[in-house]
Design goal:
Blueprint (H helix, E strand, L loop, with lengths): L7 H11 E7 L5 E6 L2 H4 L2 H17 L6 E5 L3 H12 L7 E5 L12 E2 L7 E9 L3 H12 L3 E10 L4 H7 L4 E6 H7 L4
Parallel strand pairs: 3-4, 3-6, 6-7, 7-8
Antiparallel strand pairs: 1-2, 4-5
Amino acid sequence: MAESFSRDHPLDLLAVRSAKRGTFTLASGRQSSLYIDARMTTMSPEGLSVIGPLALSALRDAAWSVDAVGGLTMGADPIACAISYASASTATPLRAFTVRKEPKAHGTAKLIEGPFRSGDRVAVIEDTITTGGSARKAVDAVRAAGGTVVGVLALVDRDEGGRDALEADGVRVIALARAAEIVARMPPA
């Protein structure tokens, strides 16, 4: 099992590897002077080894009894896989899945890939929440496939209303980091 890391470690990784200042258009269509490309952290060996155990611990601390973790591709994929891997040697291993943006046009025409099962209790995973739109798509897909969404676990909450929108719809949200915490650790411009 991976060694234990403090909550500050992923914040430092995100600040150095993932956060950028400038002018950006986010997936939500909003303009921002801050971009957090979480994949620069979540797809690195160190990021995977740190985020998986911390996210698993956050799920367990919240008492979210889930069978599987996953979310909208591509941001959720490495985080869900890291959580699943971190859970492998526990009494309750979690399966990882991914939600496609569109169903496959061939083969089984699935929208959800991986070992997701109808009836699963699920934590939807999100790399960065801004408006909550990507998480909402994953929540809707899981529910349509017969799953129960226990909540959304985000790596980063930008504090721009996404958490509030999801919680207003009855979906609980846990965030491992807030954008302001990452900005506070960024190297000087």
